[in-house]
Amino acid sequence: MMFDYLIVGCGFAGSVIAERMASQCNKKVLIIDKRNHIGGNTYDYYNEQGVLVHKYGPHIFHTNSREVFTYLSRFTDWRPYEHEVLASVDGQLVPIPINLNTINQLYGLNLSVDEMAAFLGTQSEKVAPILTSEDVVINSVGRVLYEKFFKGYTKKQWNLDPSELDASVTARVPTRLNKDNRYFTDTYQAMPLHGYTRLFDTLLSHPNIHVMLNTDYEEVKDSIPHQQTIYTGPIDRFFGYCYGRLPYRSIDFRFETFDMESYQSKGTVNFPMSQLYTRITEFKKLTGQHHPKTTIVYEYPVEQGDPYYPVPRKENQEMYNKYCQLAAALPDVHFTGRLGTYKYYNMDQVIAQSLTLFKKLKAAMVPPSANGAVINLKDAVKP
Asked: How far apart are the C-alpha atoms of 119 and 103, rounded to whole Å?
């Protein structure tokens, strides 16, 4: 069987393209994954105790894109959910990102919004130009709060000092002058009502889509007839690491289930200080599931393992750019997703990226004539 598209990876990056090509262009699609499940890193399942958990750590959907939210809403109902995170600092659990409540609780103050701005003004150290993650935080809240909330957490997460990381890493966690404890401020914040895996079941249910799991692309790429490839795996692996391996950080997830209804007050608690793990997440807070037991996960950043986080540094970007030059020479292979484009994307950004790629590919398709012959596009636009 000849497939129009061989898509590598059953996460959002690949599955969105698969669904669009199948449903909008009537293309025959084979989507493969080396894992034994669909859903990529958002895969969730019910554990032995019956608690719905995320196998690869917490995934909270949030976006400002109406297009992305409307698109996903075709495949799932939603549970409204606004994520809140606490940080364990100086023996207290205080809101993160840093806001007015954080400072008042941490220092026993009762500052107003205007007084908060003045307080941070006394703490911050103006840095120019802002080049690193350390620069971002010190310029915003100063060295004391940087040491309490960011330095240790970032060092654990990336195994690099914030002064060695691109500014984009800590810029993802802004400082607020108000009392908004939400981790995200996006217009659309929700969780799939029945979980991510159920969403993917629906997303990939089109009869033109064929799914093969436990399948390594390298082992089947030459034996499955196909016209074009969508690749969402690590771009350096696709090219045999010819310029070297792009660095990634991985996570060791350690789950525990307790015979209690609730373990902690919020869905996630960060630990920026001396613990080896970075955070603890309690899944029932995210999913809204009612269950007499609860499951949590500890996250221990590690060097080896599944590639989760591209490491944003200048030299890594330069290596990626070399791989991009190789990719540009392959007109029938298209790269998308966090690993395929070596960018630290959120879920909604991955979906938006694949929707954009679909529109580009669709626009490039040569329209058939009425009798089935191929129209020459140059002739088609002649008066």
From this structure: 9
Task: Report yes or no on whether pTM surpasses 0.90.
Answer: yes
User: Burial code of 130-165, b = ≥16 C-beta within 10 A, e = fewer?
Assistant: bebbbbbbbbbbbeebbebbbbbbbbbbbebebeeb
pLDDT in tens, 6-42: 999 999 999 999 999 999 999 999 999 999 999 999 9
H runs (alpha helix) in 159-208 = 168-171, 196-203
Dig out the tokens for 330 from the structure: 């392959």
Residue found by looking up tokens 């890193």 in the block? 41
- In the chain, the amino acid numbered 217 is Y
CA-CA-CA-CA dihedral for 171, 336, 211, 348, to nearest 10: 30
The last residue of one of the domains, among 171, 203, 221, is 171
Q: Please name the residues in contact with 359: beta carbons below 8 A apart, sequence gap of 6 or more.
A: none
Radius of gyration for the chain, computed over Cα atoms and rounded to the nearest angstrom: 23
End-to-end Cα, the chain, rounded Å: 40
Q: Nearest 5°: CA angle at 349, between 346 and 351?
A: 110
Which range has the worst mean pLDDT, 17-26, 135-144, 168-177?
168-177
Report if residue 260 sits inside a domain.
no
Residue 374 per-residue DSSP state: B
247-264: average pLDDT = 98
**Are both 72 and 93 inside the same structural domain?**
no
Q: Which domain holds residue 56?
A: 3-80+189-244+308-364
Please give the distance of CA 160 from its chain centroid, rounded to a whole number.
21
Assigned domain for 261 exists: no
In angstroms, the CA 24 to CA 32 distance is 20
pLDDT, tens digit (0-9, with 9 covering 90-100), for 363-379: 998 665 444 444 333 33
**Rounded CA separation 235/226 (Å):** 20
